[in-house]
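Recall that a protein's primary structure is simply its ordered list of amino acids. Everything else, from secondary elements to tertiary packing, is in principle encoded there. The following example makes that idea concrete.
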Amino acid sequence: MISTTRTPSFKKLRTSTAPAAVPTKESSEERYWKKFQYPVTVKEYAAVSCIDFCPVAPHDFAVTSATRVQVYSSVTNHVRKSITRFKETVHSAKFRRDGKLLAAGGEEGLVKVFDMNSRSILRQCEGHTKAIRQTCFSSNGLSILSTADDKTLRSWDLSTGESIREFTGHEDYVRALGVSSGSSDICVTGSYDHTVKLWDMRSASNSTASLTMNHGAPVEAVLVFPSASICVSAGHNQICVWDILSGGRQLFSFSNHQKTITCLAFDSTARRLMSGGVDRQLKIYDVTDYSVIHGLSYPSPILSIGLSPSESHLAVGMSDGTLSIKRRPAKSKSSTTAGTGGEGDESDDDNAGGGGLRQPQAPPHQGSKRFFRRGKSRPQEGDVVINQPRPMYHLKPYEVQLKKFHYTDALDAAMKTKNCDVIAGMFQELIHRDGLSSALAGRNHKTLMPIMKFLVHYLGHPLYQTVVLDVSNVVLDMYGSICGESKRIDQLFNALRSRVEAEINMQRRMLGILGMLDMLFSMSGTK
């Protein structure tokens, strides 16, 4: 066997560069929620207190603001109908499950039921003595529930408009109401008396709730899972999850908002929970462990959230009257046939960017022809192997001197480039070769000045600080005894000393700040 080889080529100088940012891989959930694009911003007359999507296609949505309820088209995002039969501010408006009726209530203390075709008032329920905060239909659509600032929950007969039951168990304003789609006899209320109460319409008592749970703060919003076995409450910046079947046992309690949470909402499958707050943040949680899977930021405090049953529209209402409508692009035919819908149809994201590139070949399976022929292309005994010459790379002047082991000339050539990455890389290479002392020795004030200026300028730089400190120690050991012979060199030594003292003082202040932060974190953890 005849083999010709070349001597190892010279390794080019490695320059010191800042570490590249590590790319973070987006999860399928993040890609899905980022698909809500093309935001449409509408300015309403006052704060948007309630948003509700119609359960029936095309899923138009009702927006409550000031003294009117406006129904927006999900196709054009424009106002389709406007209901103005209110004398005072209206706080809540909810569709019935068939989309034909709308129940609304506000400062007048009246529950008004509207026909969505003619916008006429079908029923007007009187009984509350103060402002109504929440209204909704029961799951069977035969009755209406409402809560008000008179500390009561009322149930109304839709056919007659008369009050069926009045529950008086709360001691403060009742601002939250939640019903389950699986049971028409159970509802949950939240009050400013810090309690969450479960009411059974079949119970004989009007003042005693079936379950009472202490949230620990004024409750702003409640939700009930479709199974009616778990409910969620939000108050202050805390969200609590309660097990109804276990007598109101708390399952989870978590806080991811900095300020008060004002609204809660489910997605169409109740596998994702959304919360909006005064801190202008919208958080999305996975209900399996209630971890945050995505977050959105808005320009003003959030008061209401709405997600269409088809999950094509995300509407957010804010305190300054701004209504934000985000729409998810419809799937193309190719994406529909390419993969299953899933959560977000991530087949497009996974297959994007192929561009016809050659994919790496999979390893051969045992028993296949490739498996038994593996390694046959390697040189065998008796073969003549001729190594191809490696391409010659153009070397920089400082690399040429470094290749010749002329360390002083290599350092001078690197200093002439005035490139901090090259100079720092040269210092590191000289330290690695144990040639730093020989490169710095025998210099006069003219050849030493560029090195001293570099050390003074980059002493506090986090990328070059380690190598600069090593070089500074060697320079001080070699030239510290000749201080006073050159005025300019003395000035640079004094500047280097000042930079070291400033760096030490800054490190001390940072350690003090770190200690204060640790104390604050420990105090917040104990609380």
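Confidence is low (pLDDT under 50) at residues 1-5, 333-358. Residues 487-526 form the longest helix (40 residues).
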